[in-house]
Every structure is written in C-alpha cells, then in structure tokens.
User: Fold Class I SAM-dependent methyltransferase from Isoptericola peretonis.
Amino acid sequence: MTTPPSRAPSPSPAPRSPAPAPADRTWAAHYDALAGVELPPGPYTQVSEWERRSLYLLGRDRYRGFGDVVELGSGGGGSTLALAQGLAENPRFDRTRDRLHAYDFFRVGRGTFASPKFFSDGEPGADGSFLADFRDHLADYLDLLEIHAGDLEQTSASAGDAPVELLHVDVAKTERVFRLVAGRFLPRLVPGSTVLHQDFASPRLPWLHHSTGALLPWIDVVGPPVRSTLAFVVREPIPADVLAGIARQEAGLDEQLALIADVQGLLGADWTGGIPFRDVLELSKAFAALHAGDPERAWRLAEPLQNVPYLAERRADHFDQLRRALAEPATRRS
Ligand SMILES: C[S@@+](CC[C@H](N)C(=O)[O-])C[C@H]1O[C@@H](n2cnc3c(N)ncnc32)[C@H](O)[C@@H]1O
Assistant:
C-alpha cells in the first residue's frame, strides 16, 4: 500500500538540475560536524546516536535537490525522523515538491525483521501494524513523507526510474530483499547519488560487501563508516550490465571473496574507532562461503577470527552458526 502524502502537492515532473555541493559541505566537514549535533530524543531506533546525527546532517547539508530521498527499512521511524529533521532545515529541499520515501512492512510478524519495540507502548495491536506509531512519531513531517507500507517486493514494483539522490538501505537482511534493492533502486543512482548501507557491520549480509566491491570502479567510499553505516557516492554512471549482474548475484564465490577483499583494503575501524571493519569483512567472507554451500571453506575462513576480541565478544553466535553448519550432514545441507 502506498499512502499518499497528507498535503496534496504532486511531485513536479520537471527535471531537476543538480546544484553543486557548497564548498564547506565536504565529507570532512560532515565528519567534523557529527560531534556537535544535538538531536531531541526520538522514537526507539535500531540505529546508533552517531548514525542518527549523520542522517540528520546528510539531510540538512548534503541533499542538493536533484533526486528522491529513499529509505528502505524505516522501522518505527527513528532513522526516518533524523533524515526528515535534516531535510526540513535544508533550503534545497522543497517541501512542496520533494519527498522522503519511507518503505517498510510497518508490521511485526514472521520474516519481517521488525521489532515489537517499534510500538510506542511495546505492545503489538491485533493486526501487528506499527504504522500508526510511525505516523505519530513523524507527525511534523507527514507532508514531506511518502509512506510505502508492505513487502518491498510489492511496494517497489512501480517505483519508477526517477533519480535517487540519497538511498538509506536498512532492509537488505536477506539475499532476496537485497536483489530487489539492487534491481529496483541501484539503477536509479546517478553521479552524485549517495548510498548508505546501514548493515555494513553485519558479517551475515555478505551481499552488501561484495556488491560494494563490484561497484568500486564507479563509486567513492566517502570515509570510515559511522558505526555500522558505510556511505558511498556514485562518481560515474554505473553500467547497466554491472547492475544487472549484482541484482542477479552472478558473481561466483571466488569473485565474491576478491570483491570483499577490495572493500576491506579501503577500511579500517569505523569513525568512532569501535568496529574493526577489516575483521568484520573477513568474517563476511565466511558467510559468503556458507551461502555458496561450502561450510568447510566457511569454517576455514572463520576459525582464525575467533582470536579477534571484537568478533569473539560481539559475534560469538556467528561462530556458533558456522560450527553448526559444518557439523550438519551434507545430505541435510542440500
Ligand atoms: C533494522 S529494521 C529498521 C530500523 C530503522 N531504520 C530504525 O531506525 O530503527 C529493518 C526493517 O526492515 C523492514 N523490512 C525487512 N524486510 C522487508 C521487506 N521485504 N519489505 C519491507 N520492509 C522490510 C522491517 O519491517 C524492519 O522494520
């Protein structure tokens, strides 16, 4: 279901021309500004306070007005609110024309990856929907929002091909959904578009890492991730066949591992110093092998990483999963 914005103006069909980013709004300035941002408390969110600040600054300072703002995986609205607050303060964001598109199931249930904490009172209603709670949290910004409630497979089917300037991806928890994101949203990126992968610190989602590797000839990683979120900017038009290959997940395992290694070479710790991304991406390689049906290789990749304190402490369940997969008889794996 697509809920039309509560205020009537329909988006202008006129092409929008990119305005240059102001000189003081470099990525260095973005990182420098993070410490000084103070946001009022928002609803329960699964993004960190640093990511909230970064989303706010992206909306306020970096949005130039040449394309849509799209958030995939809005949950209870914590990340959406930060983005909306920033956009509302950005003179280049025209509230009568520009839209922040928010996609989510907006309900809890099997396979949704949505948390009961998205309900304001922590209790799901009979239909499991937290859309009313989301709307309450975003009450001051409903006019600039376009809410797309339901499975991304349906809600993005007719999303069109207008350029996306800012894409916040917090939805690609499964390969199926990542393929939707890659097939329907990455082709809408143009030079200057910014992509944020909120789950970049999740080793279980290797498609985020090897797809970023596949895009490296056409993108620039802007700097260290802010907590879990990696940002990149499109430098040159991305060839359609490259995007189609990513959407079909065509790369074989060896290629995936090489692509992840290419990204690893660009990263150290996240901006706060808390997340060792090279180690996280090394563990991601093990999950790429697991997804490719090779638990032995997965364990060979993962085993030495048990000595990395961050992974041993924060990702112990990942090692358990890989050990269990190894122990499973081959007949049950297929
Ligand atoms: C990690 S949560 C989002 C957290 C949110 N950004 C925040 O600030 O707390 C991931 C969201 O993705 C949504 N989601 C997962 N798969 C989806 C799908 N196929 N279609 C629509 N939404 C989906 C879930 O409903 C969930 O709310």
